[in-house]
Structure formats: structure tokens, C-alpha cells
Write a structure and sequence with these properties.
7-stranded mixed β-sheet; binds adenosine-5'-triphosphate; nucleotidyltransferase; DisA; 2 domains; adenylate cyclase activity; 12 helices; membrane; single chain
Length: 290
Amino acid sequence: MHVLGAVSQELYFPDMHLTDIIEILILTYLIYHIAMWLINTKAWMLMRGIVVLGIFVLLAAVFKMHTILFLARNSVTVLATAAVVVFQPELRRALEKLGEKQFLSSIVPFETNKESSRFSEDTMDSIVDAAYNMGRVKTGALIVVEQAIHLTEYESTGIKMDCLVSMQVLMNIFEHNTPLHDGAIIIRGDRIVSATCYLPLSDNMGLSKELGTRHRAAVGMSEVSDALIIVVSEENGKVSVAQGGVLDRAVTREELREKLTYIQNRKPENKNFLQHIWKGRNKDEKRTDE
Ligand SMILES: Nc1ncnc2c1ncn2[C@@H]1O[C@H](COP(=O)(O)OP(=O)(O)OP(=O)(O)O)[C@@H](O)[C@H]1O
């Protein structure tokens, strides 16, 4: 008891206030999401590069290599500027995510379901039917469903259109050997606004090597925007969905419908936006609105 008393006297217990606890929670949240962002983007490679460079400079300091230390000291600002330039798309995406309405509504619950739907039930049915019909006959397709972030720069890489979405039109566009079948289409609301669009390819090393450029383009587009991208494989007819840099492969009709329902802002249950984007859909979930 005497020893315990002495130890407790030695221990330092800082004064904790409610604001300190809130501060710790905020910092934990931020550090977790920055770490996730680093892992999910090529910033992870940069981090590894910085660690290697740090070790090199440390060794130079230990062995008193003054020229190397001088060069390292003077190149810090140049490297910081270079990092901002190289990671401009990722930084822009991170800031856009912060500004997204759905991100805010995941934090502020009363914002949920205020916005009217982005596209109609008919559009959703047409997309789902077309995707699985094309899958059945192994017609490749790449469909971008735009959300809050406008995809004007990608739209301009293709042929401008202004056409109401229907199953027949979608199937016709992706029909082999037709002028519009190559590349991706972009859907805004209930209309197809562009076809034969060129999407950015993902450089995610973690993607399966068996996936070709169509799937890489879908993931790439989902990394730089909040769009939902549907891919129909020409090789095996499977339908996959890319969102937030994550590719959900071989989804079922119901799963595709649920993902579309989610972005349509008439989600069956109030689920966290980031959880949905980053972890993909939990396979055990069932729609409750059917
Ligand atoms: N950057 C891109 N943007 C838009 N569409 C693209 C892009 N790259 C490839 N595509 C489309 O993907 C087609 C090539 O698909 P590829 O066979 O390489 O991909 P895949 O992922 O293996 O798909 P699949 O399973 O359908 O074969 C191209 O003909 C083109 O229509």
C-alpha cells in the first residue's frame, strides 16, 4: 500500500476538461481520415518516399555530411511546392469531399433527405435493365452517373448528347460497331449528356491485374469525383460498380439498385456517407423499401 501510494504521488494526472476530450475526438477523427486518404491515394507512395529521404538526411546528420545537409535544408520549400503540384487532383478531391452536401449531411443529421431526387425511378429502372441485358449478351459498357460534382471537363472529351435515358437508348449506344459504343457515357439527372467520353485511368496498384482499361477508367473516374460508375464487362458480362475509388465487382441487380437508390437521395436507411463510399456495400444488407 505504501509503495502504491508513493507511485500514485509520482504519477502526473493532467487536468482534463470537456473541451480537451472534444479536441481529442476531433483530432482522432481527422488523423484517421487523413491516414485513410493517404492509404487510398498515391500520397501513400509520397509518404514512403519522405520516410526514406528522412532516414537519408538523418544518416547525413549523424555522419556530419554538411553539403548534403545544406542541400536538404534548401530544397524543403521546393519539395513542398512540388508535392502540392503533383497531388493537386487528390487535394482538390479531398476539399471537394469536404464541401459535398452528402458529407455534411452525414455529420448533421437534419440535412438528410432534404434534397429532391437526382433522377427518376424510370431512369433507375432503365439503367439497371440495360446493364443486365447488356451483361447477358456480353456487350461492354461504361456508364457514369453524375452526382454533386459536375463532370464538364470529361463530358467535353466525348460527343455531346441530350437524350432522355431509356433502356433501349443505353443498349443501342453500347452496341458493337456503332459510332457511340466506345468510351463512357455520362448521365446527368434523367438525361445522357455525352457519349464516347474518355475517363482518367486509375493508377491504383491494388487493382486486380485481370482488370482491363474499362474497369481502370471506372475506378479512376470514381477517384476524382463523387460519381457512381457502372461497368459491364465485355469479357464475362458481369456488372461492377465503382464509387469513391472502390470497385465492387460482380454486383447483383438488387445491389446495383440499392447503390442507385442511395445516390438518388431516397435511401432506405440513414447510413454514414463515408462508410458507404470507403467500405463499399455490406453484402448482408437488404433493401427495406421493397
Ligand atoms: N480511359 C477510358 N475512358 C473511357 N473508356 C475507356 C477507357 N479505356 C478503355 N475504355 C473502354 O474500354 C474498352 C476496352 O476495354 P478492355 O477490354 O481493355 O477493359 P476490361 O476492363 O478488360 O473490360 P472487359 O471486361 O469489358 O474486357 C475500350 O474499347 C473503351 O470502350
